[in-house]
Design goal:
Radius of gyration: 34 Å
Organism: Qipengyuania atrilutea
CATH topology of one domain: Rossmann fold
CATH superfamily of one domain: P-loop containing nucleotide triphosphate hydrolases
Number of helices: 11
InterPro entries: AAA+_ATPase, ABC_transporter-like_ATP-bd, ABC_transporter-like_CS, ABCF, P-loop_NTPase
CATH architecture of one domain: 3-Layer(aba) Sandwich
Keywords: ATP-binding, Nucleotide-binding, Repeat
Strand order of the largest sheet: 5-6-7-3-8-9
Distance between the termini: 46 Å
Protein name: ABC-F family ATP-binding cassette domain-containing protein
GO molecular function: ATP binding; ATP hydrolysis activity
CATH class of one domain: Alpha Beta
Length: about 375
């Protein structure tokens, strides 16, 4: 059975920052979602699996064929949908044979079902387009769907998908979920799309501490994660309580011994005790103090060790804050005025229709398609 085994995998950035540390994972022919905060190595893991990056330690063993679908499908001017299927040469031969210009050997090599199978694959993702359609005429979402159809068309053992629904509308996201639901190979999916993650057979969470596998989809992962987090927090609270108690006990023992020593010194100062007895009491006090100090130190060290272990199991996430300086613009100042704007991708339906918008003063708005229009990339 095809599988991917990751053993003690390590990867660091060129400046030495550790991204993945001693990662152990096993992937079978199931749909696995990869989740985690930004910077925990999700996309890095996929690039390591494809061989685009080399690990700085550990190993990866792949039994089977893999295909990778990235967040953004990069294109050149002469590429068409057929290139996503690896079918440019095959379709050219087929058309040559249909035109009567092929040799007998070429006719024998032609795959007469190729075009129909590509059309069927494209229809499954909602793209009823000819295979020779230039990729430049497709929107980003359409290119993503075409690339996904092409990856599945090749019948690889594993599909590696990096945010496959990022540029898709609701219909496109549903098409991706439907395709993965019917996929019988393995799929490793990096995504923030909770509806897509709900369809997974397992979730792998990458953190700054480890990689952990949870059976089931997104809801099952959240439920298990909540139980696990509550247990870890209870363990940490107990460890903190024991560490504080050990510190108090050590302090109390020291203060008690100090009081005993003070009474002994006062009694010796009165001169009513033989010197030999005073010397014995002094040695016994010193021995008692040393033994108590060693016991207190051992208890304190044990409590601190338990506390350190408990803290290591909980990921500490620094809060993210972004401070934007004031623009200093008066509230009445018109910064941008748009009137009845239409915009979209070449050959596609408009993404923005009849838009009128006025920005005044220090207002801040984030709309990606609109931003692309304003800087001239759409």
């Amino acid at each position: 059975m095809p599988s991917i085994t990751v053993s003690q995998l390590n990867r660091s950035t060129p400046d030495g920052r550790a991204v993945l540390v001693n990662l152990d994972l096993l992937f079978h022919c199931e749909r696995t979602g990869i989740v985690g905060r930004n910077g925990t190595g999700k996309s890095t893991l996929l690039r390591l699996l494809t061989g685009e990056l080399a690990p700085t330690g550990g190993s990866i063993a792949i039994d089977g064929k893999i295909a990778m679908l990235r967040q953004t499908v990069q294109i050149s001017a002469d590429e068409s949908i057929a290139d996503l299927f690896g079918a440019r040469a095959g379709l050219a031969l087929l058309h040559k044979a249909e035109g009567g210009a092929a040799t007998l050997d070429e006719i024998g090599e032609a795959d007469w079902t190729l075009e129909a199978r590509i059309d069927e694959a494209l229809a499954h993702v909602g793209l009823p387009l000819p295979a020779d359609t230039p990729l430049a005429r497709l929107s980003g979402g359409q290119r993503t769907r075409a690339a996904l159809a092409g990856a599945m068309f090749a019948a690889h053992d594993f599909l590696l998908l990096d945010e496959p629904t990022n540029n898709l509308d609701r219909a496109g996201r549903q098409a991706v979920r439907d395709l993965l639901a019917g996929w019988r190979g393995g799929a490793i999916v990096v995504s923030h799309d909770r509806e897509l993650l709900e369809e997974m057979d397992a979730i792998v969470e990458l953190t700054s501490r480890r990689g952990a596998r949870y059976g089931g989809g997104w809801s099952a992962y959240l439920a298990r994660k909540a139980i696990e987090q509550a247990a870890l927090e209870a363990q940490l609270a107990g460890a903190e309580k024991r560490a504080a108690a050990a510190q108090r006990q050590a302090q109390a023992a020291t203060e008690k011994q100090d009081r005993r020593d003070s009474r002994g010194r006062a009694k010796a100062a009165r001169g009513d005790m033989p010197k030999i007895l005073i010397g014995g009491l002094k040695r016994r006090a010193e021995e008692t103090r040393a033994a108590g100090s060693r016991l207190a130190e051992r208890q304190r060290a044990e409590a601190e060790e338990l506390l350190s272990v408990a803290r290591a199991k909980i990921e500490v996430v620094a809060p993210l804050s972004v401070g934007l300086p004031s623009t200093g613009l008066p509230a009445s100042r018109i910064v941008l005025a748009l009137h009845h704007i239409y915009a979209g991708y070449e050959g596609g339906q408009p993404v923005i229709e009849n838009l009128s918008l006025t920005l005044t003063g220090p207002e801040r708005v984030a709309i990606t398609p609109l931003f692309c229009l304003l800087i001239g990339t759409t």
